[in-house]
TrEMBL record:
Protein name: glucose-6-phosphate 1-epimerase
Organism: Canna indica (Indian-shot)
InterPro entries noted in UniProt: Aldose_1/G6P_1-epimerase, G6P_1-epimerase, Gal_mutarotase_sf_dom, GH-type_carb-bd
Main enzyme class: isomerase
One Pfam family in the UniProt entry: Aldose_epim
Gene Ontology CC terms: cytoplasm
Gene Ontology MF terms: carbohydrate binding; glucose-6-phosphate 1-epimerase activity
Species lineage: Eukaryota, Viridiplantae, Streptophyta, Embryophyta, Tracheophyta
Coiled-coil zones: none
Reactions listed under catalytic activity: alpha-D-glucose 6-phosphate = beta-D-glucose 6-phosphate
Binding site for substrate: R72, Q90, R95
BP GO annotations: carbohydrate metabolic process
Similarity remark: Belongs to the glucose-6-phosphate 1-epimerase family.
Keywords, sorted A to Z: Isomerase
Length: 316
């Protein structure tokens, strides 16, 4: 298996395997049975399963698993931009680069104390990257699986340049849902959002929850640090907790756009929903030596426990 490490006991460990293209993948497992799989192509979480082995992230049956294209599904890392502007490829280059395992990361203060199995990844710019985005950075990504199966991702971007630079960022999270028409998002009500379907025009959310009956592509601004995605049919709620990520992207391509996407099945929009912790409206500017941190934590809980779970997160 190559690089293998035991972290809290014999049953909590990560190991490195290879996919069918020969690209390294890191597998995280905890004793109760939850697992996560991370591809070093893009530093992308491509699987997150609960203790019953149920897949919680969506991946398209038509996904292209071969570099240089990012896989359609999981949690691609969008850096140093979200969207499509300037000379950079859409959503930036981080999701299309080979990351390395960081065996000696600098300390990270999480003050959490809970047991978890983790892997630390590192991305530095190549000469080609510097031609299209001439800024030196170190991007460290820590991916952790807690004993209860919660998935945490912590990104740290450090400016090792001689001058300031600016970037935007998103964890482009594809959640697996039973039927998009039965899903609602709570926590975004009354917020302003930019609508990508009408040139980022600004609107205010009027509903008591976000629901879906057509294509949606929005950037909600100044969002709370905890939001919930309720899947009525599965009686499952995704609790999304975030720090350093003021914006939330909500995207579902719906029927017409899905048919135009080569790496998405025509009807697969029904089983997916992207809800991204992001920094888009007011990009991050780092001076030389400065570091930015953005945290995302995903939990999947039975909907009957949802209100208690949300209260717990909001108190902490």
């Amino acid at each position: 298996m190559g690089h293998s490490a035991t972290v809290w006991d014999q049953k909590s460990e990560f190991e490195v395997t290879k996919d069918w293209n020969g690209i390294d993948q890191v597998v995280l497992r905890v004793p109760r049975g939850a697992s996560a799989r991370v591809s070093l192509h893009g530093g992308q979480v491509i699987s997150w399963r609960n203790e019953r082995g149920e897949e919680l992230l969506f991946s398209s049956s038509k996904a292209i698993f071969k570099p240089p294209k990012a896989m359609r599904g999981g949690i691609p890392i969008c850096f140093p931009q979200f969207g499509n502007c300037g000379s950079l490829e859409q959503h930036g280059f981080a999701r299309n680069k080979m990351w390395s395992i960081d065996d000696d990361p600098p300390p990270l203060n999480t003050n959490d104390g809970s047991e978890r199995v983790s892997v630390n990844l590192l991305l530095k710019p190549s000469e080609d990257d510097l031609k299209c985005w001439p800024h030196c950075f170190e991007f460290r990504l820590k991916i952790s699986l807690a004993m209860d199966g919660d998935l945490t991702m912590i990104s740290r971007v450090r400016n090792i340049n001689g001058k300031p630079y600016t970037f935007s960022f998103a964890y482009h999270t594809y959640l697996s849902v039973s039927d998009i028409s039965e899903v609602r998002i709570e926590g975004l009500e009354t917020l302003d959002y930019l609508d990508n379907l009408v040139q980022r025009e600004r609107f205010t959310e009027q509903g008591d929850a976000v629901t879906f009956e057509s294509e949606v592509d929005r950037i909600y601004l100044g969002s709370p640090n905890v939001i919930a995605v309720l899947d009525h049919e599965k009686k499952r709620t995704f609790v999304i907790r975030k720090e350093g990520l003021p914006d939330v992207v909500v995207w579902n391509p719906w029927e017409k756009k899905s048919k135009s996407m080569v790496d998405l099945g025509d009807d697969e929009y029904k089983q997916m929903l992207c809800v991204d912790g992001a920094v888009i409206e007011k990009p991050i500017t780092l001076k030389p030596g400065e570091e930015w941190t953005g945290l995302l934590e995903l939990s999947a809980v039975p909907s009957t426990y949802c209100s208690d779970h949300l209260d717990h997160f909001r108190r902490n």
